[in-house]
Description:
Layout: H1 7-11, H2 14-36, H3 43-47, H4 52-61, H5 73-89, E1 93-102, H6 118-124, H7 126-133, E2 138-148, E3 154-157, H8 159-162, E4 167-171, E5 177-179, E6 181-186, E7 191-195, E8 217-222, E9 230-241, E10 252-255, E11 267-269, E12 275-282, E13 293-297, H9 298-311, E14 317-318, E15 321-325, H10 328-333, E16 342-347, H11 352-355, E17 363-367, E18 370-371, H12 375-384, E19 390-397, E20 400-407, E21 409-410, E22 433-437, E23 447-452, H13 457-461, E24 468-472, E25 475-476, H14 480-487, E26 496-502, E27 505-511
Antiparallel strand pairs: 1-2, 1-4, 2-3, 3-7, 4-5, 6-7, 8-9, 8-11, 9-10, 10-13, 11-12, 12-13, 14-21, 15-16, 16-17, 17-18, 17-19, 19-20, 22-23, 23-24, 24-25, 24-26, 26-27
Amino acid sequence: xxxxxxxxxxxxxxxxxxxxxxxxxxxxxxxxxxxxxxxxxxxxxxxxxxxxxxxxxxxxxxxxxxxxxxxxxxxxxxxxxxxxxxxxxxxxxxxxxxxxxxxxxxxxxxxxxxxxxxxxxxxxxxxxxxxxxxxxxxxxxxxxxxxxxxxxxxxxxxxxxxxxxxxxxxxxxxxxxxxxxxxxxxxxxxxxxxxxxxxxxxxxxxxxxxxxxxxxxxxxxxxxxxxxxxxxxxxxxxxxxxxxxxxxxxxxxxxxxxxxxxxxxxxxxxxxxxxxxxxxxxxxxxxxxxxxxxxxxxxxxxxxxxxxxxxxxxxxxxxxxxxxxxxxxxxxxxxxxxxxxxxxxxxxxxxxxxxxxxxxxxxxxxxxxxxxxxxxxxxxxxxxxxxxxxxxxxxxxxxxxxxxxxxxxxxxxxxxxxxxxxxxxxxxxxxxxxxxxxxxxxxxxxxxxxxxxxxxxxxxxxxxxxxxxxxxxxxxxxxxxxxxxxxxxxxxxxxxxxxxxxxxxxxxxxxxxx
Length: 514
């Protein structure tokens, strides 16, 4: 007879009970271990992984162990190279501080013998009388940066850093302090050169800013907020920036390397540690860094520094043409499909351009081997050319290419504020005017209207030849550079208020927008 198993029969057998208990405990422990085991990545999981929901739950329940990525040899070499650049450049970047002494605030009460009268002295008090007589002169301080470009102590910086200073002090990286001599300034490029009485100084070599390309890595060094020899890194965001409104001659390098107040006059260098720019300004809505900085290119700064060092002033070249940018409509009229170049609107009598047979309507495309993108580029190229230099100009005349050789002249004193005479834009209420600076010897300021295009809005508003424009929208116009700068900011839809002198009369004219 087959044996019948029941709970009672099992309980009667202690050995069997012990074995059963042991098996149950093992099963329970195994299930528990399987349930609470953390998720791990194995070869098996690569073949057939758990559902994404379980992976997400597992990753939330316990973070994965951190494993740092392996550092590539190229990255290590780049890091060491940047360190080497910083060590090379920082000793040549100096801190510049200026002190300006200003006249005391004028009393609202002019000097009068009444204040010496006993009655007024009693009413106002003796202290008020003494303060009026002994008001102290105020001392204001400013700060910026500079770059040593010569071992004998020549330093390049921005004009706006030092122009207003009565005293200029230079602090080197080793904290030595020197009183600096102002050799010369050029407000039209916002550059200046200083000299300290020291030799064998660390200095930076000039690089060629003409070969720069967008995307190149650059390093900026300066003294933002008084933090000496601060180094930042970025790339070149753009080259040839003009019409920014910072200086009269603009060909800026744009960079995203951090530039802040106090960086003005500092160095922008390439990966070879060569000086390719002088940090000048930032675009900011807050007053601080917003990723857009501007530097004067080294080729421009080098030429200005050399002229200031030799002559104590900026000596500029002169071609003697009035120029403007091309527009699509003008390009069609002059039989070209491209809008690059500078359109000659007039040739000055007796100028180098007249001697070289330039003509009105010529489109200048190349100057001394450099492409001319617009009238601003040509203006800058000519100004940078030393007088008596022979250059070749490539142009388009009636649809045909031509080459002309011209000997650049010295800019006349009465045109020193104008560059090329009468550069006029094409998309604002004053388009169609050709102007020149008035003669300073007569004590006048402003621009004289040389020509008025008959179909222009300016002509329709009543502007005539020989009118002298003194103000545009309540902004004083001292010369043709002021005229160019102010009109370049006008929109074609803007109405313009002009103050002008006609003969012995002064009158306002309102020129409506489109």
